Amino acid sequence: MLAELKQAMAGLSIGLVYWSTFSALVATNEPWDGRYYWSAAYPGSMVIAVALGLVWRRRGWITGLSLTFAQLPIILVNTGVGPLAFFGVAILAILSVPVILAAAMTSMRGRSTAKIR
Questions:
Q1: DSSP string for residues in 72-94
Q2: Which of 34, 43, 86, 102 has the fewest CB atoms nearer than 10 Å to its CB?
Q3: How deeply is 107 buried, as exposed, middle or buried, from its count of CB atoms within 10 A (0-12, 13-18, 19+)?
Q4: What is the C-alpha separation between 72 and 18, in angstroms, rounded?
Q5: By the 8 A CB rule, do 96 and 71 touch?
Q6: CA angle centred on 26, ends 33 and 74, rounded to 5°
Q7: Residue 78's Cα: distance from chain center in Å?
Q8: Type and span of the H or E element at 12
Q9: Does the CA dihedral 15-88-43-7 come out positive or negative?
Q10: CB-based contact 88:75 (threshold 8 Å)
């Protein structure tokens, strides 16, 4: 349980730095409104998720989830909680699926498996 919490906090911390830097560089309140979100930032988050999946060999999906959902605090701080906040959470849930899969698949690679006798 403690290891999973560390993974989540690492993904969240890295994600907060990543998404806040991206938002500041492209001067947008919401990362997904940035000009290079789909061409650079979102694919970059998948690269980070793969790297984190290599670091944590178990339950890598946690870092993918927390990395993607790190956009939420940035959005809430910049725009506040409004009527579309629930919609934003739903979009982040959808956006997190490929990042979760990338982190999970990487974390499973190279893991030792029990020998079948």
A1: HHHHHHHH-S-TTHHHHHHHHHH
A2: 86
A3: buried
A4: 13
A5: no
A6: 60
A7: 19
A8: helix 2-26
A9: positive
A10: yes
Q: How far is CA 93 from the centre of its chain?
A: 10
Instruction: Write the single-letter amino acid at 34.
Output: G
Contacts of 9 (CB under 8 A, 6+ apart): 66
pLDDT tens, position by position, 7-47 = 889 999 999 999 999 999 999 999 999 999 999 999 999 99
pTM over 0.90: no
C-alpha closest to that of 44 among 94, 98, 114: 98
Judged on CB neighbours under 10 Å (0-12, 13-18, 19+), 110 is exposed
Residue 5's identity, in one-letter code, is: L
Residue showing tokens 């806040």 = 20
Q: Are 106 and 55 in contact (CB under 8 A)?
A: no
